[in-house]
Amino acid sequence: xxxxxxxxxxxxxxxxxxxxxxxxxxxxxxxxxxxxxxxxxxxxxxxxxxxxxxxxxxxxxxxxxxxxxxxxxxxxxxxxxxxxxxxxxxxxxxxxxxxxxxxxxxxxxxxxxxxxxxxxxxxxxxxxxxxxxxxxxxxxxxxxxxxxxxxxxxxxxxxxxxxxxxxxxxxxxxxxxxxxxxxxxxxxxxxxxxxxxxxxxxxxxxxxxxxxxxxxxxxxxxxxxxxxxxxxxxxxxxxxxxxxxxxxxxxxxxxxxxxxxxxxxxxxxxxxxxxxxxxxxxxxxxxxxxxxxxxxxxxxxxxxxxxxxxxxxxxxxxxxxxxxxxxxxxxxxxxxxxxxxxxxxxxxxxxxxxxxxxxxxxxxxxxxxxxxxxxxxxxxxxxxxxxxx
Length: 389
Description:
By secondary structure, the protein is of the alpha/beta class. The protein contains 16 helices and ten strands.
Protein backbone atom coordinates (compact mmCIF):
# COMPACT_ATOMS: atom_id res chain seq x y z
CA UNK A 1 0.00 0.00 0.00
CA UNK A 2 1.86 3.08 -1.25
CA UNK A 3 0.98 5.84 1.21
CA UNK A 4 0.70 9.46 0.03
CA UNK A 5 0.58 12.76 1.85
CA UNK A 6 -1.26 15.64 0.17
CA UNK A 7 -0.88 19.10 1.69
CA UNK A 8 -3.35 21.75 0.56
CA UNK A 9 -3.00 25.53 0.39
CA UNK A 10 -4.23 28.36 2.54
CA UNK A 11 -1.44 30.83 3.30
CA UNK A 12 -0.87 31.16 7.03
CA UNK A 13 -3.56 28.54 7.64
CA UNK A 14 -1.01 25.92 6.56
CA UNK A 15 0.27 25.95 10.15
CA UNK A 16 -2.60 23.52 10.79
CA UNK A 17 -0.74 20.96 8.66
CA UNK A 18 2.30 21.21 10.91
CA UNK A 19 0.28 20.16 13.95
CA UNK A 20 -1.14 17.26 11.94
CA UNK A 21 2.38 16.25 10.89
CA UNK A 22 3.50 16.36 14.52
CA UNK A 23 0.74 13.89 15.39
CA UNK A 24 1.59 11.70 12.38
CA UNK A 25 5.22 11.53 13.49
CA UNK A 26 4.08 10.53 16.99
CA UNK A 27 1.82 7.81 15.59
CA UNK A 28 4.55 6.53 13.26
CA UNK A 29 6.99 6.33 16.18
CA UNK A 30 4.46 4.36 18.23
CA UNK A 31 3.89 1.93 15.35
CA UNK A 32 7.62 1.26 14.87
CA UNK A 33 9.98 2.96 17.38
CA UNK A 34 13.05 1.79 15.43
CA UNK A 35 12.02 3.26 12.10
CA UNK A 36 13.19 6.78 11.31
CA UNK A 37 12.18 7.10 7.65
CA UNK A 38 8.88 8.61 6.58
CA UNK A 39 5.99 6.19 5.97
CA UNK A 40 4.87 8.54 3.16
CA UNK A 41 6.73 7.84 -0.07
CA UNK A 42 4.53 10.13 -2.19
CA UNK A 43 4.36 13.76 -1.08
CA UNK A 44 2.32 16.35 -2.98
CA UNK A 45 1.86 19.99 -2.05
CA UNK A 46 0.00 23.04 -3.29
CA UNK A 47 0.42 26.69 -2.34
CA UNK A 48 1.72 27.00 1.24
CA UNK A 49 1.31 23.23 1.45
CA UNK A 50 3.97 22.93 -1.26
CA UNK A 51 6.49 24.57 1.07
CA UNK A 52 5.61 22.22 3.92
CA UNK A 53 5.74 19.28 1.48
CA UNK A 54 9.21 20.16 0.22
CA UNK A 55 10.48 20.53 3.78
CA UNK A 56 9.11 17.13 4.82
CA UNK A 57 10.42 15.50 1.63
CA UNK A 58 13.93 16.81 2.27
CA UNK A 59 13.94 14.84 5.55
CA UNK A 60 12.23 11.65 4.38
CA UNK A 61 15.06 9.66 5.95
CA UNK A 62 14.21 11.13 9.38
CA UNK A 63 10.51 11.94 9.52
CA UNK A 64 10.49 13.11 13.14
CA UNK A 65 13.40 15.49 12.55
CA UNK A 66 11.73 17.02 9.52
CA UNK A 67 8.51 17.55 11.46
CA UNK A 68 10.32 19.05 14.44
CA UNK A 69 12.09 21.55 12.19
CA UNK A 70 8.76 22.61 10.70
CA UNK A 71 7.14 22.94 14.12
CA UNK A 72 10.05 25.07 15.32
CA UNK A 73 9.84 27.34 12.28
CA UNK A 74 6.07 27.90 12.35
CA UNK A 75 5.89 28.29 16.14
CA UNK A 76 8.33 31.24 15.97
CA UNK A 77 7.05 32.72 12.72
CA UNK A 78 6.67 36.43 12.00
CA UNK A 79 4.92 38.00 9.01
CA UNK A 80 8.08 39.92 8.08
CA UNK A 81 9.75 36.59 7.24
CA UNK A 82 7.14 36.02 4.50
CA UNK A 83 6.47 39.49 3.08
CA UNK A 84 7.69 43.02 3.66
CA UNK A 85 5.94 44.67 6.57
CA UNK A 86 8.17 47.74 6.95
CA UNK A 87 6.67 51.18 6.29
CA UNK A 88 8.71 51.68 3.13
CA UNK A 89 7.66 48.35 1.64
CA UNK A 90 3.97 48.81 2.48
CA UNK A 91 3.96 52.44 1.33
CA UNK A 92 5.57 51.50 -1.99
CA UNK A 93 2.95 48.80 -2.60
CA UNK A 94 0.13 51.16 -1.66
CA UNK A 95 1.49 53.91 -3.89
CA UNK A 96 1.64 51.58 -6.88
CA UNK A 97 -2.01 50.57 -6.41
CA UNK A 98 -3.08 54.18 -5.87
CA UNK A 99 -1.25 55.29 -9.01
CA UNK A 100 -2.78 52.45 -11.02
CA UNK A 101 -6.28 53.37 -9.90
CA UNK A 102 -5.88 57.12 -10.45
CA UNK A 103 -3.54 57.61 -13.42
CA UNK A 104 -3.11 54.07 -14.70
CA UNK A 105 -4.28 55.18 -18.13
CA UNK A 106 -1.19 57.41 -18.32
CA UNK A 107 1.54 55.09 -17.02
CA UNK A 108 -0.08 51.99 -18.54
CA UNK A 109 1.54 49.87 -15.86
CA UNK A 110 -0.40 47.78 -13.39
CA UNK A 111 0.88 46.89 -9.90
CA UNK A 112 2.05 43.31 -9.53
CA UNK A 113 0.71 42.47 -6.07
CA UNK A 114 -0.42 43.95 -2.80
CA UNK A 115 2.58 42.57 -0.88
CA UNK A 116 6.27 42.09 -1.63
CA UNK A 117 7.18 38.48 -0.73
CA UNK A 118 10.90 38.78 -1.40
CA UNK A 119 11.64 37.71 2.22
CA UNK A 120 9.96 34.36 1.48
CA UNK A 121 12.02 33.96 -1.70
CA UNK A 122 15.21 34.47 0.29
CA UNK A 123 14.04 32.11 3.04
CA UNK A 124 13.27 29.28 0.61
CA UNK A 125 16.68 29.60 -1.01
CA UNK A 126 18.44 29.39 2.35
CA UNK A 127 16.33 26.90 4.30
CA UNK A 128 15.55 24.08 1.85
CA UNK A 129 18.04 21.62 0.37
CA UNK A 130 16.61 20.44 -2.93
CA UNK A 131 19.70 18.36 -3.65
CA UNK A 132 18.74 16.33 -0.59
CA UNK A 133 15.33 15.62 -2.09
CA UNK A 134 16.98 14.33 -5.26
CA UNK A 135 19.34 12.18 -3.18
CA UNK A 136 16.47 10.66 -1.18
CA UNK A 137 14.60 9.87 -4.39
CA UNK A 138 17.68 8.14 -5.74
CA UNK A 139 18.01 6.18 -2.48
CA UNK A 140 14.33 5.13 -2.77
CA UNK A 141 13.42 6.78 0.53
CA UNK A 142 10.86 8.62 -1.59
CA UNK A 143 8.90 7.59 -4.67
CA UNK A 144 7.72 10.99 -5.90
CA UNK A 145 7.43 14.63 -4.84
CA UNK A 146 5.31 17.25 -6.58
CA UNK A 147 4.16 20.86 -6.35
CA UNK A 148 1.42 22.46 -8.42
CA UNK A 149 1.05 25.94 -9.89
CA UNK A 150 -1.23 27.72 -12.36
CA UNK A 151 0.03 29.65 -15.39
CA UNK A 152 -1.52 33.09 -15.74
CA UNK A 153 0.05 33.21 -19.20
CA UNK A 154 -1.52 30.10 -20.74
CA UNK A 155 -4.20 29.14 -18.22
CA UNK A 156 -2.59 25.71 -17.79
CA UNK A 157 -2.48 24.00 -14.42
CA UNK A 158 0.92 22.28 -14.12
CA UNK A 159 2.20 19.73 -11.63
CA UNK A 160 6.00 19.86 -11.37
CA UNK A 161 7.49 16.66 -10.01
CA UNK A 162 10.57 14.59 -9.32
CA UNK A 163 10.40 10.80 -9.06
CA UNK A 164 12.62 7.87 -8.12
CA UNK A 165 11.89 6.15 -11.42
CA UNK A 166 10.44 7.23 -14.78
CA UNK A 167 6.77 8.15 -14.51
CA UNK A 168 4.75 8.91 -17.59
CA UNK A 169 3.65 12.52 -17.48
CA UNK A 170 -0.07 13.04 -17.87
CA UNK A 171 -2.11 15.58 -19.76
CA UNK A 172 -5.74 16.39 -19.18
CA UNK A 173 -7.95 19.33 -20.14
CA UNK A 174 -6.03 22.43 -19.02
CA UNK A 175 -3.80 20.45 -16.63
CA UNK A 176 -0.61 18.51 -17.14
CA UNK A 177 2.55 17.30 -15.39
CA UNK A 178 6.23 18.02 -15.98
CA UNK A 179 9.29 16.22 -14.64
CA UNK A 180 11.71 18.91 -13.43
CA UNK A 181 14.45 19.52 -10.90
CA UNK A 182 12.38 21.20 -8.20
CA UNK A 183 13.69 24.45 -6.79
CA UNK A 184 12.66 27.52 -4.77
CA UNK A 185 10.97 29.15 -7.79
CA UNK A 186 8.46 26.29 -8.10
CA UNK A 187 7.47 26.68 -4.44
CA UNK A 188 7.28 30.45 -4.70
CA UNK A 189 5.05 30.13 -7.77
CA UNK A 190 2.78 27.57 -6.13
CA UNK A 191 2.35 29.80 -3.06
CA UNK A 192 1.72 33.08 -4.94
CA UNK A 193 -1.78 33.88 -3.65
CA UNK A 194 -3.57 35.85 -6.39
CA UNK A 195 -3.40 39.66 -6.00
CA UNK A 196 -1.60 39.32 -2.65
CA UNK A 197 1.75 37.99 -3.91
CA UNK A 198 3.39 38.47 -7.33
CA UNK A 199 3.41 35.82 -10.04
CA UNK A 200 6.67 33.94 -10.64
CA UNK A 201 8.29 33.45 -14.07
CA UNK A 202 9.13 29.85 -15.01
CA UNK A 203 10.50 28.62 -18.34
CA UNK A 204 8.29 26.06 -20.08
CA UNK A 205 9.44 24.67 -23.44
CA UNK A 206 11.73 27.64 -23.93
CA UNK A 207 8.96 30.16 -23.22
CA UNK A 208 8.64 32.17 -20.02
CA UNK A 209 5.24 31.84 -18.39
CA UNK A 210 4.09 33.53 -15.20
CA UNK A 211 2.70 31.24 -12.51
CA UNK A 212 0.52 31.82 -9.48
CA UNK A 213 -1.06 29.84 -6.67
CA UNK A 214 -1.60 26.18 -7.52
CA UNK A 215 -4.97 26.14 -5.79
CA UNK A 216 -6.46 28.27 -8.59
CA UNK A 217 -8.60 26.12 -10.90
CA UNK A 218 -7.30 22.96 -9.21
CA UNK A 219 -10.18 20.68 -10.12
CA UNK A 220 -8.39 17.43 -9.17
CA UNK A 221 -5.96 18.05 -6.26
CA UNK A 222 -5.57 14.31 -5.56
CA UNK A 223 -4.72 13.47 -9.16
CA UNK A 224 -0.89 13.70 -8.80
CA UNK A 225 -0.83 11.27 -5.85
CA UNK A 226 -3.01 8.80 -7.76
CA UNK A 227 -0.82 9.08 -10.87
CA UNK A 228 2.19 8.31 -8.66
CA UNK A 229 0.56 5.03 -7.64
CA UNK A 230 -0.77 5.92 -4.20
CA UNK A 231 -3.44 3.58 -2.89
CA UNK A 232 -4.00 5.43 0.37
CA UNK A 233 -3.92 9.22 0.68
CA UNK A 234 -3.86 11.39 3.79
CA UNK A 235 -5.02 14.93 2.98
CA UNK A 236 -4.03 17.68 5.40
CA UNK A 237 -5.80 21.00 5.60
CA UNK A 238 -8.81 19.99 3.53
CA UNK A 239 -12.04 21.94 3.76
CA UNK A 240 -14.48 20.95 6.44
CA UNK A 241 -17.90 19.96 5.04
CA UNK A 242 -19.58 23.16 6.20
CA UNK A 243 -19.63 26.79 5.06
CA UNK A 244 -17.55 29.36 6.86
CA UNK A 245 -19.53 31.80 8.97
CA UNK A 246 -18.71 35.37 10.00
CA UNK A 247 -17.39 35.88 13.49
CA UNK A 248 -19.60 38.82 14.38
CA UNK A 249 -22.97 38.81 12.63
CA UNK A 250 -23.78 42.53 13.24
CA UNK A 251 -20.71 43.54 11.27
CA UNK A 252 -21.88 41.65 8.19
CA UNK A 253 -25.11 43.60 7.82
CA UNK A 254 -25.30 46.01 4.94
CA UNK A 255 -23.02 46.08 1.94
CA UNK A 256 -20.10 43.61 2.33
CA UNK A 257 -16.57 44.92 2.71
CA UNK A 258 -13.88 44.06 0.20
CA UNK A 259 -12.41 41.73 2.83
CA UNK A 260 -15.70 39.84 3.13
CA UNK A 261 -15.85 39.46 -0.63
CA UNK A 262 -12.18 38.52 -0.71
CA UNK A 263 -12.61 35.80 1.91
CA UNK A 264 -15.26 34.11 -0.24
CA UNK A 265 -13.01 34.32 -3.30
CA UNK A 266 -10.09 32.80 -1.38
CA UNK A 267 -12.36 30.11 0.06
CA UNK A 268 -13.31 29.10 -3.48
CA UNK A 269 -9.61 28.98 -4.38
CA UNK A 270 -8.38 27.03 -1.36
CA UNK A 271 -11.30 25.04 0.01
CA UNK A 272 -13.85 23.99 -2.58
CA UNK A 273 -12.01 21.68 -5.00
CA UNK A 274 -10.78 19.06 -2.53
CA UNK A 275 -14.27 18.19 -1.32
CA UNK A 276 -15.47 17.61 -4.88
CA UNK A 277 -12.40 15.48 -5.69
CA UNK A 278 -12.91 13.29 -2.61
CA UNK A 279 -16.56 12.80 -3.56
CA UNK A 280 -15.51 11.77 -7.06
CA UNK A 281 -13.02 9.20 -5.73
CA UNK A 282 -15.61 7.78 -3.33
CA UNK A 283 -18.02 7.42 -6.26
CA UNK A 284 -15.37 5.57 -8.31
CA UNK A 285 -14.59 3.32 -5.31
CA UNK A 286 -18.27 2.49 -5.05
CA UNK A 287 -18.39 1.55 -8.73
CA UNK A 288 -15.25 -0.60 -8.45
CA UNK A 289 -16.73 -2.54 -5.54
CA UNK A 290 -19.48 -3.71 -7.90
CA UNK A 291 -17.09 -4.77 -10.68
CA UNK A 292 -15.61 -8.28 -10.97
CA UNK A 293 -12.03 -8.29 -9.67
CA UNK A 294 -10.64 -9.32 -13.03
CA UNK A 295 -12.19 -6.27 -14.69
CA UNK A 296 -10.59 -3.69 -12.40
CA UNK A 297 -7.09 -3.64 -13.98
CA UNK A 298 -8.56 -3.45 -17.46
CA UNK A 299 -10.77 -0.52 -16.54
CA UNK A 300 -7.80 1.68 -15.67
CA UNK A 301 -9.42 2.37 -12.31
CA UNK A 302 -8.36 1.20 -8.87
CA UNK A 303 -9.63 1.59 -5.36
CA UNK A 304 -8.04 4.53 -3.50
CA UNK A 305 -8.67 5.24 0.17
CA UNK A 306 -8.67 8.91 1.19
CA UNK A 307 -8.54 10.26 4.73
CA UNK A 308 -9.07 14.04 4.89
CA UNK A 309 -8.01 15.76 8.10
CA UNK A 310 -9.64 19.17 8.37
CA UNK A 311 -9.98 21.83 11.08
CA UNK A 312 -12.67 20.88 13.58
CA UNK A 313 -13.01 24.53 14.60
CA UNK A 314 -13.66 27.66 12.58
CA UNK A 315 -10.26 29.02 11.59
CA UNK A 316 -11.61 32.57 11.30
CA UNK A 317 -12.63 32.45 14.98
CA UNK A 318 -9.01 31.68 15.90
CA UNK A 319 -7.79 34.38 13.52
CA UNK A 320 -10.05 37.02 15.07
CA UNK A 321 -8.20 36.58 18.36
CA UNK A 322 -4.86 37.37 16.75
CA UNK A 323 -5.45 40.05 14.10
CA UNK A 324 -3.79 42.61 16.37
CA UNK A 325 -0.61 40.52 16.22
CA UNK A 326 -0.11 41.67 12.64
CA UNK A 327 2.29 44.61 12.22
CA UNK A 328 0.62 48.02 12.35
CA UNK A 329 1.54 48.62 8.70
CA UNK A 330 -0.32 45.50 7.56
CA UNK A 331 -3.33 46.24 9.76
CA UNK A 332 -3.45 49.71 8.26
CA UNK A 333 -3.38 48.35 4.73
CA UNK A 334 -6.04 45.75 5.53
CA UNK A 335 -8.13 48.42 7.25
CA UNK A 336 -8.82 49.96 3.88
CA UNK A 337 -10.66 46.81 2.78
CA UNK A 338 -12.20 45.90 6.13
CA UNK A 339 -9.71 43.12 6.81
CA UNK A 340 -8.70 44.29 10.28
CA UNK A 341 -12.16 43.80 11.79
CA UNK A 342 -13.72 40.61 13.14
CA UNK A 343 -15.88 40.14 10.04
CA UNK A 344 -12.75 40.25 7.89
CA UNK A 345 -10.82 37.79 10.03
CA UNK A 346 -11.16 35.00 7.49
CA UNK A 347 -9.49 37.15 4.82
CA UNK A 348 -6.77 38.28 7.23
CA UNK A 349 -6.11 34.68 8.32
CA UNK A 350 -4.36 33.93 5.00
CA UNK A 351 -1.79 36.64 5.82
CA UNK A 352 -1.57 36.05 9.58
CA UNK A 353 1.92 34.57 9.61
CA UNK A 354 2.40 35.19 13.33
CA UNK A 355 3.50 32.68 15.95
CA UNK A 356 0.48 33.03 18.24
CA UNK A 357 -2.00 32.22 15.47
CA UNK A 358 0.28 29.49 14.08
CA UNK A 359 0.56 27.82 17.49
CA UNK A 360 -3.22 27.73 17.87
CA UNK A 361 -3.49 26.05 14.47
CA UNK A 362 -0.65 23.64 15.25
CA UNK A 363 -2.42 22.54 18.42
CA UNK A 364 -5.72 22.14 16.56
CA UNK A 365 -4.10 20.09 13.79
CA UNK A 366 -2.39 17.90 16.38
CA UNK A 367 -5.68 17.16 18.19
CA UNK A 368 -7.66 16.54 15.01
CA UNK A 369 -5.08 14.07 13.70
CA UNK A 370 -4.80 12.15 16.96
CA UNK A 371 -8.57 11.66 16.74
CA UNK A 372 -7.80 9.47 13.71
CA UNK A 373 -4.96 7.62 15.46
CA UNK A 374 -6.32 4.07 15.06
CA UNK A 375 -6.91 4.29 11.32
CA UNK A 376 -3.65 6.11 10.66
CA UNK A 377 -1.66 3.59 12.71
CA UNK A 378 -3.08 0.78 10.58
CA UNK A 379 -2.20 2.56 7.34
CA UNK A 380 1.33 3.35 8.51
CA UNK A 381 1.89 -0.23 9.71
CA UNK A 382 0.77 -1.59 6.33
CA UNK A 383 3.00 0.83 4.44
CA UNK A 384 6.01 0.00 6.63
CA UNK A 385 5.56 -3.76 6.30
CA UNK A 386 5.33 -3.64 2.51
CA UNK A 387 8.45 -1.46 2.23
CA UNK A 388 10.36 -4.09 4.23
CA UNK A 389 9.40 -6.89 1.84
